[in-house]
Specification:
The protein has 20 helices and five strands. It has two domains: about 180 residues, no CATH class; about 130 residues, no CATH class. It has about 325 residues and is mostly helical. About 55% of the residues lie in helices and about 5% in strands. The termini are far apart. A hairpin with a 5-residue loop joins strand 1 and strand 2. The strands form two sheets. A three-stranded antiparallel beta sheet has the order 3-4-5. The protein is globular.
Length: about 325
């Protein structure tokens, strides 16, 4: 049955952007490449990449200097190991997401050439690099940027049926026939099926999220609901803002609200409340966030946003907290 479903997917022909017919079979048989491989793409975009902020703006870092030297040396006779290429790609992704600038990280790549590198890496012979590219495109690339590159991504993933590939394919525009084929291949992953319109899988995820008492599991379910992104999933996430589930770590206490806010950013990908602000909040403490952004002002802004669009209150407590540093002493156990 699995082979029949896979063949059905491979035989699909769709009209891509611009009215060009595309099918996985045709792409494979006629050697229609998704573009240059990542190494050539990196050379092609080298000058633009070198103009990006490759490290902290207040000074140089060892990572930034290594990456700059790597880019400058592209095309020379010096050989590079697979690990070098993997490191360069991951560091460029981090720079493209502006992870080194506090408050600038949105959770998504802001530099178009880095998205191009990720698409090119889908066809790389190095499985580690391909896997990193799949994760980057699935979790760190805005929907609009994926949709403009749907055809080369589908060509690169023709015939793939592993979890990472299916998770990315489910985010691309597709016909009803394509969706049915992908749902059949994604039997083990309810969030992928839900993304593809499986109402039963969606209901199961929402029910599990609402009932989950454990922080880590609820955190993972919030991420799944953000990935699905349906109206019902958004409503469940909004209810999650009022959850009292939290984790108690050695050095901090974390409310599930942080994970919910980041998950909402996967749906509302250009809303700073759930992108830049949510990431700053989840990676810092309430005290640091209050100094930089204003904790009470942020809680009010989120509540206003939710009430205006959904007619409900975001919070059900007077004082909303997210990340509290506890400074508990580390106890050594014999």
């Amino acid at each position: 049955m699995k082979h029949r479903i896979r063949n059905a997917w491979r035989g699909i022909v769709l009209v891509a952007a611009g009215g060009v017919l595309w099918s996985p079979v045709r792409a494979a048989e006629t050697a229609v490449a998704p573009g240059p491989d990542m190494k050539h793409a990196m050379i092609q975009h080298r000058e633009t990449l070198l103009k990006m902020e490759l490290g902290p703006p207040e000074g140089t870092s060892q990572n930034a200097e290594w990456l700059r030297a790597f880019l400058v040396g592209l095309g020379t006779a010096k050989s590079r190991t697979p690990q070098d290429w993997q490191d360069a790609f991951r560091r460029l992704v981090g720079a493209g997401m502006r992870e080194h600038r506090i408050g600038a990280k949105s959770g998504f790549i802001e530099e178009p050439p880095v998205v191009e590198l990720a698409v090119s890496a889908l066809g790389d012979e190095d499985p580690e690099l391909r896997s990193a590219a799949l994760r980057t495109l699935t979790w760190s690339t805005r929907q609009a940027d994926l949709e403009t590159r749907a055809a080369p991504i589908k060509a690169a993933l023709a015939g793939a049926d592993d979890e990472d590939a299916l998770r990315l394919l489910a985010r691309l525009p597709s016909s009803a026939e394509e969706q049915a084929a992908l749902r059949g291949m994604a039997a083990a992953w309810p969030e992928i099926r839900a993304r593809l319109g499986d109402a039963q899988a969606e209901s199961g995820l929402i029910a599990a999220f609402r009932a989950e008492p454990a922080y880590q599991r609820m955190h993972n379910l919030a991420r799944d609901l953000g990935y699905v992104g349906s109206p019902a999933c958004v409503e469940a996430l909004l209810a999650g803002l009022r959850s009292q589930v939290s984790s108690q770590g050695v050095h901090d206490d974390r409310s599930i609200r942080c994970a919910v806010l980041v998950a909402l950013g996967r749906v509302y990908q250009t809303e700073p409340l759930f992108t830049n602000d949510a990431w700053l909040l989840s990676e810092q403490s309430d005290e640091v966030f209050d100094q930089r952004r204003g904790l009470a002002a942020y809680a009010t802004a989120v509540n206003d946003w939710v009430r205006e669009r959904f007619g409900v209150e975001a919070w059900d407590v007077q004082e909303v907290w997210f990340v509290r540093y506890s400074n508990r002493p580390r106890i050594r156990r014999e």
